[in-house]
Amino acid sequence: MARDQSSYRMTILLATIFTHLLGVSITLLVLYWLLNFREGFAFTSDVKFKIFNLHPLLMILGFIMFSGEAIIIYKAIPATRRVLKLTHLIFHLIALGTGILGVYVVFKFHNELDIPHMYTLHSWIGLSTICLFGLQLLLGFVTFLFPGAETATRARLAPWHVLFGLVIFAMAIVTAETGITEKFVFLKLKQGQEALVVNFIGLLILLFGIFVGLVVALPLRRK
pLDDT tens, 11-45? Predict the structure, then answer.
């Protein structure tokens, strides 16, 4: 029995470590892509695509990475329940902040080049995800932190909080994949190093989403 318990905990640990490694790999690949192939990024520039490049940077490295880490934080570090809650909240606040800024810079880019807004499926799903994310964060804060609902109410709402959190995270993954595909088409990439880098970013993001879900699905077995 003890051996089974140890083996199970090792499975959770390995899945969590692999999820972190995927996050590091995605970060390095996105930075390599934007700096090596897309001329970097800037908030203001005569090269307008540098402004756009902040969008994938903020949405992938900020919104998706931090929200994913926030979701698995309860399995990632040994800490008190309150510390885990606060870390979960802080990571989600960072994710929301970078997500809002990421939306802002793409609107800024469109305005400066007189491009229409919100005309693709990617943009529809993306804005819906940000709005639902903010609503989920607000409801989670008032229910589980301040002022906080009664214990029975928190226990009843907790599974729904987890479920809707995973649904919104899945929407973020779908948004990223459609955005990467959209960018691939706009750049007319077919073969070559940049095409490989972009495709691997998309593949790793998909794996990151799968493993975040897997880590959450594996319940903690306490002694």
Answer: 888 999 999 999 999 999 999 999 999 999 999 99
DSSP state of 221: -
Cα-based distances in Å from 135 to 109, 128, 184: 26, 11, 31
Query: Which amino acid makes up residue 159?
Result: P
Q: How far apart are CA 147 and CA 140, in angstroms?
A: 11
What is the token pair recorded at 174? 């779908």
> Is residue 103 within 8 Å of 117, Cβ to Cβ?
no
Q: Cβ-count burial of 15 within 10 angstroms (0-12 exposed, 13-18 middle, 19+ buried)?
A: middle
What separation in angstroms does the CA of 214 have from each of 3, 18, 60, 71? 22, 11, 20, 11
- Taken as a whole, the chain contains a residue count of 223
- Alpha-carbon distance 117 to 49, whole Å? 16
- Conformational region of residue 79, where left means phi above 0, alpha means psi within -120 to 50, and beta covers everything else: beta
What distance in Å separates the CA atoms of residue 116 and residue 129, rounded to the nearest whole number? 20
pTM: 0.93
Nearest C-alpha neighbor of 203 from the set 169, 176, 168: 176
Q: For the chain, how big is the Rg over CA atoms in Å?
A: 19
